[in-house]
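Exercise (ungraded).
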Amino acid sequence: MEWEVVIGLETHTQLQTKTKIFSGASTAFGSEPNTQACEVSLAFPGVLPVLNKEAVNCAIKFGLAVNAQITPRSVFARKNYFYPDLPKGYQISQYELPVVGKGMITIQVPAVGKNPAYEKVVNITRAHLEEDAGKSVHGAVEGMSGIDLNRAGTPLLEIVTEPDMRSAAEAVAYAKKLHELVQWIGICDGNMQEGSFRCDVNVSVRPKGTDKLGTRREIKNLNSFKFMQQAIEFETRWQIETLEDGGTISQATVLFNPDTGETRAMRSKEEANDYRYFPDPDLLPLEITEADKDRVRAQMPELPEAMKARFEADFGLTSYDAASLTSSLDLANYFVATVHAGADAKPAANWVMGAVSAKLNAEEKSIAQSPLTAVQLASLIKRIMDNTISNNAAKQVFEALWNGEGGVDAIIEAKGLKQVSDTGAIEAIIDEVLAANAAMVEEFKAGKEKAFNALVGQAMKASKGKANPAQVNEMLKKKLGA
Amino acid sequence: MINCSLKALGQMLAKKQVSSVELTQEFLNRIDTLNPEINAYIALDKNKSLAQAKAADIRIAAGSAAPLTGIPIAQKDIFCATGWKTTCGSKMLANFVAPYDAHVISQFDAAGAVNLGKTNMDEFAMGSSNETSYFGGVKNPWDFTRVPGGSSGGSAAAVAARMCAAATGTDTGGSIRQPASLCGFTGLKPTYGVVSRYGMIAFASSLDQAGPMAKSAEDCALMMNVMAGFDERDSTSLQRDKEDYTRDLNKPLNGLRVGLPKEFFADGLDANVAKVVETAIAEYKKLGAEIVEISLPNTGLSIPVYYVLAPAEASSNLSRYDGVRYGHRAAEYTDLMDMYCKSRAEGFGAEVKRRILIGTYVLSAGYYDAYYLKAQQIRRLIAQDFEEAFKHCDVIMGPAAPSTAFKAGEKVDDPVAMYLQDIYTISTNLAGLPGMSIPAGFSAGSDGKALPVGLQIIGNYFDEARMLNVAHQYQQVTDWHTRMPELNTLKEVA
């Protein structure tokens, strides 16, 4: 039987606000335990929550970015359960009426093997505001558990998708797109190591061609895309094998172990808490007007979708290239700056997505940390455009620029990479090559097209790579009467 | 001096006829004498109180006194006050010293008032007789065998026995008005949202409201001038202009339309109480009021609705008392769950546990719609009853409590009988309306002792100044509010 995996994601994004969602305590990461826990964070008797407006603005930004319905009157609810790092004994969240309703995100799924890249729309079910819990710290004091409430009350936007994804690749493409988007609109720093962007993945399988959803298991707290890919692949295989062996899947929460690459059930959902949700009487319903939305919209950058469309229309880029360049705002800005500095758009796109990205990946740097500025890259591209250097020579110049060896022209000069475009000089080289390779010339004339390329190669070699290849081609054709 | 109005005390302080230190000392002495018997206060700190009095005297001398500067006020032990034990009447918080001030406390501090001590109360404000307090019951100063009412029983006894100039209370279902009725003084529960709940330990957040407990309507008005006002730390606090609650006190009552809900005079009301209330209403007619019969048809549902909603909110509000960060923690436990169970089992009393259980039940999956949601719907109907009634009258009057003070122990084993004490007060909390109780006379108890009876006045939203005017005019032509229990022989009795 052929199986189909069905995947939905719940992502907790930590919102970039200075203070907590319901108090004035700081949200900065990494402080000494409990130094950022005010009386509200500690849930002293009599304290009350007051909603941070900046967190609401973040939610509106997200709603606008995914074309979602923004709920005019949403409600905060208490989710009741006991845990030592949950100081009030309930978490303030949203339940029946979340701030952001149905929306959508278009993802680009990269090519894998023979399967080409494609676009897909993932539907957003909802996104709601809630507060984070604190942390239990084990092992700091022997035989005891500590509680750090610095994180308690940190604002989160939980973004929930429909079960729309059908492979680990799609799930990862969605997660990456969402990760890029929340940073693009400036609501989340995207730092996965510090837990600013945490994904829970719901996975189920079903016989291909059937409609009914299988029983899902939820993989909790994945904090890297690599682990997400591995976890989903393992979980999918495990579920298929279990079913093929005649077993059944029961609903459960599972954890991924990066060391073994396996998922393992943490608790079964049958023991799940009854959270006794009810509207929080300490908070009024959250009202968002059209004017609020307009105000937030005016503060937002151009969205990636719009920018992508513009790149396609203005620069003639392919959909895939435009999507890649708009995968982050910094990258897009770098590309635009390169074009503004005089480079043609197509080579600029190729360089940014090619050599520059490869270097950054290899050195684990972001585009903002690139040692090569957009203006330098544009100068390099201009030297290719005006035939000063060949593409091959440009690669050497690029390396030198990256290593900080000086300006483009100085490097070309120093390394003697200037292309020979002098017709006389090239003609002389070609004549020499034709004389020395009479056999090849005969082959070409007998109809072997490949011999032509070999002759071009010989001419280039004779010029030590400096001859303008286009000129060589043209002149050779003329000489051979082709 | 102990029977003087706040205004008179203020004038005596201003004229230096008495200092705040002397006044505070006088009340502290009276507390020393009476409190061992009455048990109105559960925390006293003479040094702190006298230090505040000293500061007040300096302020008075500097000519920058506010109306309550230097006046000793008793604070219900539900308000967090920096450096004061704040127990909410519970073993759970028996050793909790608040690290911050409730809004109400900081308002009194800013006014220069003296915090005389923290008063006894039903545990987490759950009770109508002060008998659920971990720190023992409070005696009704009119008859030591009887309860003062609750939950603000300590503040009630302190005001009635003149162990303070005035006191604060909180009212979730009648906790200011029922004790005011049972102890014979003036108590006001303002419109929900008028007094900030910040730092006031939560029982049922959508119903809790703080208010003054004092000897007269005028005193309550002066207290309201300090307590009321917007506070950005409470999201349910209402953003309104500051008002002077004394502004309408002297307006005549000609043409005042007084609504009498027929449901408030039906079965369940003690005949003697009814007689006192009717006499008071006759007095209002003499003052120019016009009587209108009205109906609040859903009154009978207010107690069942309240005992779904208040416990639901309480079950969640009290989850923070888990023994992890502060409060009572069991001495021995085997694991986390055991620590939770033992700490909460030991820290909470029976009535609190009962309400946590009810609240947890009504919020549970499968029961939520039938209980919590249904109760919320009826709550809206109850509010609509009042909305309709106020089309025909300016204020509503009736009894504040169905009977006079009952004997200690009489209702402790019958929670439903206890809950019925709030039959006339609870609906105003559900609607968020202001209500008050004023002394209207006395009725002989079963053993012949005269016991106070309160008249309840319910106003429309934000009509506190009008209600205080209505009460004040009555207090100009009657002297019930000036009566105080005979306590001079107390030492011999004890």
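Further reading is listed at the end of the chapter. For now, observe: The longest helix of chain B spans residues 369-389. The CA atoms of residues 294 and 378 of chain B lie 19 Å apart.
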